[in-house]
Amino acid sequence: MKLQALTIFLLAFVASTHAAISPEVYWKVKLPNTQIPKVIKDFLPQSDNVVPELKQDNTKEKVYYGLSGYIAISWHHAANSAYERLVLEKVNPIKQVTEGIDDSPLKQYFLLEKDLEKGNVINFPSLLNKNEAPFLPRKFAESIPFSMEKFPEILNHFSIDSKSKDAQAIEKTIKLCEEPEVKHKEKRICVASLESMVDFGLSVLGTNDILAITSEVQGETQNSQRYTIEQVQQIADGDNMVCHKLNYPYALHYCHVGGSTKTFMVSMIGDDGTKVKAVSVCHKDTSFWNPNSFPFKLLKVKPGTTPICHFVQDDQIVFVPSK
Fold first, then answer.
1. Count of CB atoms situated within 10 Å of the CB of 222
2. Helix (H, G, I), strand (E, B) or coil at 268
3. Residue-wise pLDDT tens digits, 148-196
4. Distance between CA atoms of 92 and 87, rounded to whole angstroms?
5. pTM for the whole thing?
6. Residue 245: beta bridge partners?
7. Lowest mean pLDDT: which of 24-33, 114-123, 177-186, 200-209?
8. Angle ∠(253,237,36) on CA atoms, nearest 5
9. Distance of alpha carbon 318 from its chain centroid, rounded?
């Protein structure tokens, strides 16, 4: 009862004052039973009035990049969407996708629920992503323009050459964020602050009793290799929210809820000894996905026939209602 009373008091305090609080305190007030994942905590500013140091003017790149690009964000967009074109450009030559689907490296990112069994051996790439973009306090993030309409202004804000790799990355990210929602069973948003991420999670999951989980990798291997599944634990069955960190000058996440899912924690060990605790999201209803999207071609199944699963990289966060 004391904890509940304290939480109510803090919520009232935050709502009724303009006192500057840190994003970490905001999380603790809004999600009192949820630990902040390390992949978030390591990149938080210490105060709502302190802006973390972004990349300096003398660096070649102003955008923070993950190692693996955009792999598995959403596969139920319209055919030939900006996101699907982005994946083709970033991960796989078009010729390989259309002529040699079985050889595609993307195949390693998708599997069927029946494959998540102890003792199974699967080929799998590293889950390391290492996008080190820092979070901005909400009021600073919201003061920076974010739209294709303001694209020149954004480049000017970060002193980025319009012909550079960074400019191309920013353009792709904004276009992904501005794609219209799929009307059937999808809710999504790109959030530029931790506070906005928390608020969206509360609105779509309908509870503040939430688990926030991430994949964990012990080792630095970047190569695909064989992994043996040692344990599979079901964490949740129902809606979840997944937030994917995007390539941008500060921490920007694509957060979405895309229909009913099962969420698993899968413990694996690689042939080289790398230990992985991987979060796997299995989409139970794929009937509304684009029938021409990669997972169906890669796994040779049809929409709505069987759950399709994918692992999330270590800088992506999965939010599920707590049991």
1. 11
2. strand
3. 999 999 999 999 999 999 999 999 999 999 987 766 667 889 999 999 9
4. 7
5. 0.82
6. 253
7. 177-186
8. 40
9. 8
Angle of helix 2-16 versus helix 23-30 axis, rounded to 10: 130
- Exposure string of 269-295, with b = 16+ CB inside 10 Å and e = fewer, is bbeeebebbbbbbbbbebebbbeebbb
In single-letter form, the type of residue at position 262 comes to K
Residue with tokens 């974010």, as numbered in its chain: 146
The torsion angles phi and psi of 194, rounded to 5 degrees, stand at: -65, -35
The residue type of 292 is N
For 181, the token pair is 């929602």
Structure tokens at 173: 């990210």
Tokens representing residue 97 in the block: 């996708």
Q: Which single residue is written with the structure tokens 């993030």? A: 141
Phi and psi for 217 in degrees, rounded to 5? -125, 125
Cα 119 to its chain centre, rounded Å, is 28
- CA-to-CA dists, residue 22 to 16, 26, 37, 94, 106, angstroms: 16, 6, 16, 45, 39
As a whole number of Å, the CA-based R_g of the chain is 20
* Residue-wise pLDDT tens digits, 287-302: 877 788 778 888 889 9
Helix (H) or strand (E) holding 194: helix 194-205
Let me know: does 109 contact 125? Beta carbons within 8 Å: yes
